[in-house]
Amino acid sequence: MWFGKKWGWWAVGINYVKYGLRTLWNGFLLFYMFRENVLSFFNTTETIKWKALLIVFIMCILIFVLGTFFKTI
User: Fold this and answer.
1) Which of 3, 29, 46, 65 is the most exposed, fewest CB within 10 Å of its CB?
2) How many domains does the chain have?
């Protein structure tokens, strides 16, 4: 009943909400990890933030590409 024509949008809507909340949570966590008190606690205040974010972004893209590639095999 939930996956019929009338109720099929629930499955899509739930996925958008789930992954949207996950993305929001990870964004807030990343923002928190780059605060000055957290960087000073881990003794990484000399770290260049944009380079660190670029590395994280590249790793996410790499994981996405590999996951997509191995999913098709």
Assistant:
1) 46
2) 1
Reported as a single tens digit per residue, the pLDDT across 5-51 is 677 777 788 888 999 999 999 999 989 998 999 999 999 889 888 99
CA atoms within 13 A on the CB side of 8: 3
Domain containing 63 equals: 15-72
In a domain, 10, yes or no: no
Instruction: Render 11-60 in DSSP notation, one character per residue.
Output: HHHHHHHHHHHHHHHHHHHHHHHTSHHHHHHTT-TTS-HHHHHHHHHHHH
